[in-house]
Every structure is written in structure tokens, then in C-alpha cells.
Write a structure and sequence with these properties.
The complex is a heterodimer of chains A (about 375) and B (about 300). With about 375 residues, chain A is mostly helical. Helices cover about 75% and strands about 0% of the residues of chain A. Chain A has 15 helices and no strands. The two termini of chain A are about 10 Å apart. Chain B is mostly helical and about 300 residues long. Helix content of chain B is about 70%, strand content about 0%. Chain B is built from 12 helices and no strands. Chain B is globular and about 70 Å long. The termini of chain B are far apart. The chains are: A mainly alpha (about 375), B mainly alpha (about 300).
Chain lengths: ~375, ~300
Amino acid sequence: MSTGAAGPTGRLQRSLIIVGVNAVALGLALAATAAIVALYDKPVGDALRALYEGSLGSAFAIGTTLNKATPLLFVALAFLVAQKAGLVSIGGEGQLYVGGTMAVAAALAFDGLPRPTGLILALIAGFVGGGLWGALAGWLRARFEVNEVIATLLLNFVGIAVSNLTVQEPALLREPVTDSASLPQSPLLAQVVRLPRLVQDSPNRVHLGIVLAVVAAVAVSVLLRRTVAGFRIRMLGFNPAMAERAGVNVAVLVVLVMFLSGGLAGLAGTSVLLGEQYRLQPEFSPGFGFDGIAVALLARSTPGGAVAAALLFGALRAGGLRLEAAVQVPQALVLVVQGVIILAVAATAYWVERTLRARAGADVVAAAQPELVEANA
Amino acid sequence: MSILAISIGASAASDLAASAARLATPIGFVALGETFGEAAGIINIGLEGVMLGSALTGAWAAAESGSVLVGFLVAMLTGMGLLGVMAVLCIGLRANQIVVGLGMNLVALGATTLVFKSVRTVALAPGLDPLRLGFLDDIPFLGPAFFRQRLTFFALLVLTAASAFVLRRTAWGLRVRAVGETPAAADAAGVRVDGVRVQAMLVCGALAGLGGAALSIGELRGFTENMVAGKGFIALAAVIFGRWRPWAVLAACGVFGLADALQGQLPAWQVNFPPSVLRMLPYLIALVALAVQRGRARPPAALSIPYERRR
């Protein structure tokens, strides 16, 4: 049996192919940017400079990039944890709404506690809220055979509506209605329950969320690669029948994985609300739950890659803000660029996998789980 | 007194039914299209984007030509073109259907917003007026509710009947369902799996394009930024709720339309009911329905799985 994929040469080839494909995708995205900017009759150089300055060019820009990357990274991790178990969850958006709402509820309830107890309780609430929303989809799948793609999709809309409901009802989280003009929103969160800024007295507004997200990426990586639970998760994804026969309680594991996945997505909403917006408002997420899936794809479902891809998309979002102000090209351009990257990567994914598998010989296990073969070598 | 109350109640109910049918119409076209796609084993998360793209080109063509018909035709072709691109990716290149759909949504939202901000003429387009169907109009309740709709509503009913017939009773419909359930068996029987899937996707695109135009030309007379606002996802949910059968899918669209219409009507009736609860209700009903009918409410077995011949 060939174990080419796991050897040093195989590793290098694999990395080269993936880097090459991502470079092509980014090149296409750059070409799309240039074409659109040219259509607007603006200098392409100015536009690229604005993108750079808005994402990396100043302390403020770097902070914006990191803060925009945070929810994307959490959602990407949520998606890839489920994917490793063979579950396709597109419920990140609903989970982040429910998680964020629970976090704000906890933050408002516990803001009298000494720092950092209230914040920690709010983070736990955010994780548990998103987790329960994810677990609900897992339970529907395990108990009632409802396809998880469909269950998570439908639960998105319910989750968003639940969150909106809490800020529309004075009995729930809505701040006291003083006159007919008061908006449906929660009270402002107290300083003690906000995610602290990492740099004091600086235009760089980066908050603790990005650190938590990177820690989560490391934790997910360790869980999947180095623990028994992670082995079971991957076995479930690799071959559910085999997992069942090996003594894995598939129904319970599906619910647990969806709880973990939903919890990570819940932290995405939590980080946005506790770190940037400081209060709950209706429709607070501009689709992080969907963009994060794209991040996971771009990363080919590795936690490390997800960090890099989230930073890239975060930089695009941050740069887009500047683009509109400096060159008068609408920041909607950034959506097109993201979409082009996603489509280019999706278009080549099958070819890449097939090429890699061919290089790995017929050894499917080696192709799917190179680290196992490596450990045996 | 009570007769008065009843007659007011009846007119309120027919108003409600009328606006439910009106709101459900654009979603209905898209859901009908997706019924073909999913029957063939293709799930399209990008309907939102397809609808947006065709709503824009339809409004543009109608505004430029002054003809509603031209607008609908261009929208239909746009939908087919976008689904053609998705077919190249999902079938030709075996790309992940969910990811391609997400990418399509982003590109369409971005591109239509860019166009909308520079080509202002798309904001105003000629539109369709509700029809007056003579004697049918006078039927109590049904007349005001269903016979003062726009032409798009009646076109949708005809297309639903046609779709039910095509999917159930024709050889092509059988092939579509076969490649969605057991592509390997269909392949062995000599059906060109990828070819049939592409055809189903193009039908989906044509119908989704009509849905976009039904919104931008038929109803709102012009395009605005992100005007679809989740209707593409609702169509997707309606297909599931309707269990992949055209008439049931249409009925599911009606339920979503009713929830939408109630949100608009309840304040006028001085009923204080949280709109968010109304908004989530259809999705909850769909979920409960799927859970209760487990096994029987099964999606096409090969849904979202690219077909690969075994070597």
C-alpha cells in the first residue's frame, strides 16, 4: 500500500496544490475587483490602496479586520466540527442569534457581579444558547430522521425571530419604552460585562473575541486530532455504520456534535454583541452565519486554515468600508469578491481532492486521515 | 348587528386571503422551480441570489422596452443563465451545491447592489395591474380574494398544474425523479444522469427568474437593493414543507404568504400580537410537520450528492 500522501513529499505536494488553487482564486477575485473598479471609471490603484489602508493600513484598520474576522472564525469552526461528523449544518445564523441573545440576557442579569464573573457567565450563556439551538437540529435528525441541512436551515429563521421577539417585548429584553420613538433594542450593556479591548487608549478597537476564537480553533484542532471523542467524531463522518458497530452511540454523538457546533456559532453572536455592538438589536448579523461557512470551505475544513481564511474575509470586510469612503465604489464590491473566491474554490475542490487522492494511491484511509498513517509509520 | 359583524369579518378574511395570495405569488414560482431541481437531486441555496439577479434584469428590461412581457422574458433568461453557471459548477465540476449556492447569493447581492446604485432607471418599471374577471369577481369571499389578482397569480396556478403533470405523468418527469432518488439505477437504465439534472436546473432557473420578475415587475414596479430579503430561502422551506409535490408546495407558499399578510393586517385590526411569533410560525409548522411524518416526508435520496459513476 502506498502511503505517499503522508510522506514528506506528499505533504509538500498537497500544500503546493492547495496554495496554488487558493492563489488562483485570489487572483480571480483581484481581477474581478479591478474590472468593477474600472467600470466605475476609478483608478484601480487607488481602490486597491483603499482596500489595503482600510484593512491593514492603520491601528484602527487592523482592529476592524480582527473584529470582523472573529465571528467568521467561530462560525467556520462550527461548520467544520459538524462536517467532520458527516453533518452539514447551515444553521450558524440562527445559532448565533440565539446564542447572542442568551449572552445579552445573561450579561444584563449578572452585570452587578464583580469582574469578570458576569462576563464569563454571559459567554457560557452564549455558548449554551447556540448549542441548544444546534442540538435541537441534531435531535430532530437523530430522533425523527429530519435531514439536518433542512432542520438547520429552517431553525435559522425561527432563531432570528426569537431574537427579534426578545427586543420587541418590554417584558423580555427591550429597554423601557419612554416615548413612541424608542427603538426596539435592549439596554446598553455595562462596562463590566463587555469583552475588554486588547489595546487601551488606541484607535485599535480589537477586543478579546479574536483571542477566544483562536483558542477555540486550537481546541477544536486538538479535540479532532488528539482525543478519543475526536476520533469517534471522525469515524462517524467517515462511515456511520462502522461507527455504530464499533460501539458509538450515533444518536447521542450527533446531538453532542451539533451542541458543540451550535455553541461555537453562538459565541460568534456573543462576540459581536459583547465586543462591538454592546446591545441587542433586531437583525444584528449581516449574514455572518453564512459567510463563515464559506470561510470553512476556503480553509478546506482545517482549523488552522480557518484562522487564515477568516482573517482574509475580515480584511475584505474592513477594506470595503474604506473603499466606499475613499473611491466612491460601493462596498457591495466586497460581496462580489467574496462570492468569486467562494465559487472559484468550490469549482476546484473536487479536482483537488481527486488529484490528491490519486497521488495517495488507492489507500483511501491514508487520503482521508493522513495523520493516522503517519502515526503508524 | 351580528350580520354586520359577520359581513365585516368576511370582508376582512377575503382581504387577508387576497394579500396572502399576492405575497405568495413570487415565492410560488421560485418554489415550483426548486421542486424540479430537488426532485433531480440538486439543492439550491442560491435561489435568493437567482431571484435578485432576475428581478433586476427584468425590471431593467421592462423599463427600457416599456414592455412587461419583455421584462419577464429577460428575467426568465437571466434565471436560466445563472442556473446554467451553477450547473457547470455543481454538475460539470462536481462542486459542493451548498457552497456554490452561498457563493451565488453573495455575488448576486453584491452585483445587483452595484448595478442598482449606478443604473437608477431600474428603480421604476412598468407593472401589472390586478385583473377584473367580470362575473367571477362577484362570488362572495372567493371573488375579492382570488379573482382580483394579477396575471402572475393565474400563470402560477397553470404552471403548478403543468408541473404536477410533468413530474408525475411524463417520461421526462420520471427520469427527473429517478436521477434524484437512485442515480446509479437511472444510469444503468440508460438515463444520462448529468444531462437530466442540467435540464431540471434550467427549468428551475426559468421559474425562479419568473419569480424574481413577479416581484420586481409584477408587484413592486421596480428594483430596490436586496428586495428579495429572504424570499428565496422561504421558497426553499416551502419546497420542503410541501414535500416535493407541486400542489402541496404551492399550498405551503400560501401558508407563508398568510403569515406575511397577517403581519400587515393585525395592527389594522387593533390586534396586539408579536409579529416575530407570526414570522417564525410557518417554519415551526414545517419542522413539526417533517418530524411528525418522519420517513414519509423524505427528501429525494440523492439530494445534494454529486453523481459519480463507479469505476
